Amino acid sequence: MKITIIGAGYVGLVQATCLADFGFNVTCIEKDVEKLRELKFRRIPFYEPDLEDLFRKNLKNNRLSFTNKYSDNVSEADIIFICVGTPPKKNGESNLNFVDQVSKDISNKIKGYTVIVSKSTVPVGTSRRIENLLKKNNSTKTFDVVSNPEFLREGAAINDFMRPDKIIIGCRTKKAEKILKKIYKKLKRPYVVTSNETAEIIKYANNSFLATKITFINEIADLCENIGAEVETVAKAIGLDGRIGPKFLHPGPGYGGSCFPKDVKSLIYQGNKNSTDLKIAKAVDRANELRIKSLFQRVKKITKNKFNNIQICLLGISFKPNTDDVRESPGIKLAKDLGRTKAKIKIYDPEGMGNAKKELSKSIEFCNDEYEALKNTSLLIIVTEWNQFKNLNLSKVKKLMKKPVILDLRNIYSKEIIQLGFQYHSIGNN
User: Cα(72)–Cα(80) distance, rounded to whole angstroms?
Assistant: First the structure.
């Protein structure tokens, strides 16, 4: 079976590499000249743990290739995965221009029966939209369109692909269902086979529910601070309830990344478009936007709103550990707020520095390691819970800092740090 994947971004490249590792011959079509050049030189254009070894292994075994040409790579394919971006518009609507263009590009190049798989996160009705665009230029129905949403977490994408909780297949024919199951047969995971429309909404419902859990525990954390309770104990206790579960109950600066903010807003838009007022989703979106503003107010309180001639260190700028993705990162937002004060901002992140430099002011200092970033600072803000930050040499940290004050937005330390002479502020603990 020959597989073609259109789009070699995060989702497309992980999909291509893992399917190649299953033994399939996979061709990735990528139109971005710079990205294509990197891939042909065997360089991955983003950071994802464990991906590089798998990528190089399958290049060596000639199961994985990259091109910018559609021609034979579409006409000879048995299955085509569409893995292009669907960036949000200002009103929350998903921009489907890339999906539309791909559909048009492949429509007159399909020859025999082909399964077209929508892997991108797309609003309900996109499968029909693809079908209509394909039929417009290819009157003979020689294809099926399938919705097969991904659930890959950045920083754990390979594991998530190889050990998914579920595999969603939205399709209209048994033939297409059979082919998708053949693709994923090595995974031996539960299938949810449904309509295209149901499959499309599952992804949005899934991500919005997780965003809701994050937002809820953040608000509980705020309450805990005001009443003298400990949020970690609260989270542990409610997470032991089988109906709730422990995941995504970690208080912090709010959710970010390329998925949750976009998907919540898109769900709200789809609700409004279809006469459904999604009040909870709207509240989650609003609460998350206000979250970083409240944390900035907390920084002002800790510094007594005196930012003149002080240095502030931010450890972590990617939206989560084990990725270089800074899209919608709370760290980026906080750095921008702090950058408007008269404080000097210093940043270190193991992987996200390159992308952060594109987003932030040149007045911000990007450092080579965490200890360089801590020199002469009066406030350390832990933004992203990278493992190396959990194991800082605290004696060294105290000596480097002008004032040993820590605002721990991820609760990677405990109150015991106070005994070492630090002024310690956490989330959800009095």
Answer: 12
3-state secondary structure of 143: strand
- pLDDT, tens digit, 9 for 90 and up, residues 314-367: 999 999 999 999 999 999 999 999 999 999 999 999 999 999 999 999 999 999
Active-site pick, 224, 259, 313, 367: 259
Cβ burial 227-255 (10 Å sphere, 16+ → b, else e): eebbbbebbeebbeeeeeeeebbbbbbbb
Question: CA-to-CA distance for 339 and 344, rounded, in angstroms?
Answer: 8
User: Average per-residue pLDDT in the chain?
Assistant: 95
Residues 166 and 204 in one domain: no
Q: Give the pLDDT confidence score for residue 430 in this predicted structure.
A: 73
Q: What is the pLDDT of residue 376?
A: 97
| Residue 147: strand, helix, or coil | strand
Question: 116 and 232 share a domain?
Answer: no
Q: Report how far Cα 105 is from the mean position of its chain's Cα atoms.
A: 28
* Residue 259 falls in the annotated catalytic set: yes
Distance, CA of 235 to CA of 232 (rounded, Å): 5
Is residue 351 within 8 Å of residue 324, measured between CB atoms? Answer: yes
Residues 168 and 253 in one domain: no
pLDDT band with cut points at 50, 70 and 90 for residue 112: confident
Number of domains in the chain: 2
Which pLDDT band holds residue 140 (cuts at 50, 70, 90)? low
Cα separation, 245 vs 209, in Å, equals: 13
Q: Are residues 153 and 291 in the same domain?
A: no
CA 17, 45, 23 angle in degrees (round to 5)?
10
CATH number where 260 lies: 3.40.50.720
- The H-assigned helical ranges of 138-252 are 157-162, 174-183, 196-227, 231-239
Which amino acid, 258? Answer: S
Query: pTM of the prediction?
Result: 0.94
